[in-house]
Amino acid sequence: MLTIHASKQDTITLDNKEFFFLAGILGSDRLLGVEDPFQGYLAEEIADEWGVVKASLLEKGYLIEEENGIELAMPPKVFSRVAIASLAERSCWIRYRKNNKTFEGYLHATNERVVQVCKSDKDSEYKLDELGTVDEASDRLLEEMELKDYAPIDAPALLLSKSKFGELYSSASALSLEDLSDELAAATNDPEGSIALSKCLKFLTVEGELHFSTWTGSRWETQSAAFVANDSMNWLIRMSVSGDQDWLTASPASKQQFQETLLLWLKQSAESDGR
What we know:
The chain is α+β, with helices and mostly antiparallel strands. It has helices at 16-25, 43-60, 76-87, 134-145, 162-171, 177-188, 191-202, 255-273, and strands spanning 12-15, 64-65, 72-73, 90-98, 101-109, 114-119, 125-132, 158-160, 206-215, 220-229, 234-239, 248-252. The two termini are 35 Å apart.
């Protein structure tokens, strides 16, 4: 599995029960991407589990007993990562595939820092890494994805049905380049742009999707996008999320344009919230 650059020595590893207990200490009950390990447990059963989890966290050094032997504290590195991962109001789930290897994880963002949370190779275990500021984290992500710098000037976006694009995306490897281009041209009424997108779908080097979520105070609101790239150019894909809508736009985007879009999503809610 791919990981965005982070020092292994700085990685914090928690199983799902440890993660939930530390988040609970900080008052959070909305961990994204982490299944609740205590669903269906009775209160006394959860209390029994706490003793086992506390012993594990103390052994790892992720909890420290104060001198009075009663109070517990988290080391600053553990506290900051768990706090951002469990309390941040902006989060971006990212999955992408490059060279037959896949990265999947969450970037939890505040105005100051970004924490990456990924599943480890072990079941029910998660790795927490700090990626720096929003700008630094986006730089690292774009470096790992190896998107291309080039995008045609003033190339129009292609508009078509999301379901039709899904059909063509799934069958791209089986169709000839000419047939794929013809199908896209019929759906978009843009022969030139359809040829460029067909070449990208036929000869993919990187593909992925993003779900950017903002906490409203009671629920998560999510925007979605996807992207595909070949050796010459990238396409940013936006699509409907409502069940009664069926539209999709595919736009050529340079690496810089893609990064600007990502930063806009990550910073937009902070501006709208007045933070």
